[in-house]
Write a structure and sequence with these properties.
The chain is α+β, with helices and mostly antiparallel strands. 54% of the residues lie in helices and 12% in strands. Helix 1 packs parallel to helix 3. It is elongated and about 90 Å long.
Amino acid sequence: MAPSKEKEDALSARMERLGIRESDLIEKFILGSGSGGQKINKTSSCVYLKHIPTSIEIKCQQERSRELNRYYARQELCDKLEERLFQEKSKRQQEFEKIRRQKRRRSRRQKEKMLADKRHSAVKKNLRRPPSDNSH
């Protein structure tokens, strides 16, 4: 299953805008590895792409189809080149860093401050309670 004609055209236009020519690319097909059973280990569906002027190397084995992997490898090459040209982090890298920050452990000072805030709000909540009737 290959990507649609519109997607192919959009990718080739993007490559043209970035100045990537097919003649500047070295493309090899490598035997796949990892999960997927015998089929993945027998077929050369993994795509290796190298852009000669920038020495950017891409290996892509997202799908079982060689055509789709060729498409995704070129897309990834465009992403990396844009990142390098415009000095901005790609969306994927921003997502990765965001998750990393979320998973990072809090420092001792941060943790103490958070717990102090929780205690403070607990005291406020206790003051909101109606007075208990223990005069019996």
